[in-house]
Amino acid sequence: MDSFFDKSDEKLISLYVSGCNEAFDALLDRHKDSVYGYIFRNVKNADVADDIFQETFVKVISTLNSGRYVENGRFAAWVTRIAHNRIIDYYRQLKNEGL
Question: Rounded mean pLDDT of 6-11?
Fold first, then answer.
């Protein structure tokens, strides 16, 4: 994964879409702390944060694999927005369950 250290997010995405799973691992490693931190600060529960983190990156993988990701040089902001939407979904579910 060290060989991916100097590559931009855009290049890593391109490599991943071309079939290089290690590029996604590098991308995940690069952004996991900030995304998880954002989620945890909002939900204040490690188990919930873990679940939302996983859901976020499942959505990222799904979008990249389907070719629906539009490159605009703002991958980190895009991933954070997905996490934010998952957090909102979590709170809506809590509200609907009356918790």
Answer: 94
- What is this structure's pTM? 0.90
CB atoms within 10 A of CB 32: 13
**Contacts by 70-77, CB closer than 8 A, 24 or more apart:** 71/10, 71/13, 73/9, 73/10, 75/9, 75/10, 75/13, 75/27, 75/31, 76/9, 76/31, 76/34
> What is the rounded CA–CA span in Å between residue 52 and residue 83?
7
Query: Length of the chain, please?
Result: 99
Residues 6 or more apart in contact with residue 64 via CB below 8 angstroms: 13, 16, 17, 24
